[in-house]
């Protein structure tokens, strides 16, 4: 079967669904998919107002005590316009692609008391444990992330990939903004939390619909007003926290080793567009080895 659990509003208001005490493993695509199954371009054509698209998507969903593992593409997918999905005590493990994917214009999700481990190892470059793709006002609390492929959590605004060749591709209306990542553990990760993870990525092959610069290789990413606070980072294989957009807060995090634990800056945007990262709040971040993890200007 392609998918384990599908919650589809079919374009009519749907709220209050609860799923408890289930396992979803070894499906050909996703373990769990929550969506409104109409194609993106048709949603925009039929319902130009975003408030109406939100009204017709699933909302107020509870997933509790689930195990989602070894699904071929993604573990849990929360699709566009879905609102307020709570994932409590879920285990998302050993999915070769993304562990969790929160799609554009979805909002208000909560991941709490959960584990996200060993996802994203099915491709050469790896995938994150959790992708927050132009999804806003979410919270990730008291969850363990361990040994995910490319990173634990990435926040970014998709560049409107393949806009000219895929008629179903649609622009993201805002970035990955106003998210809170609080009180989690990050273990054995290449990057723990990566804010604006596509800011310095060459996206020329993605045929982006948003304006590109520097020989068409880069598109400005957007992930602002996010808070990363009171998290613990252990056995890092790279950076703990990377900040590549403006107006984010990194507060009260703890690292085993301070050197290189936090990176603030975006070299391509700063050099080419003369716009370094500004407005970052760094406060009370500490390391067990006594080295100050809080960097000076890095652009």
From TrEMBL:
Residues 5-200 form the Right handed beta helix domain. Pfam families: Beta_helix. This is Right-handed parallel beta-helix repeat-containing protein. It comes from Candidatus Dactylopiibacterium carminicum. The lineage of its organism: Bacteria, Pseudomonadati, Pseudomonadota, Betaproteobacteria, Rhodocyclales.
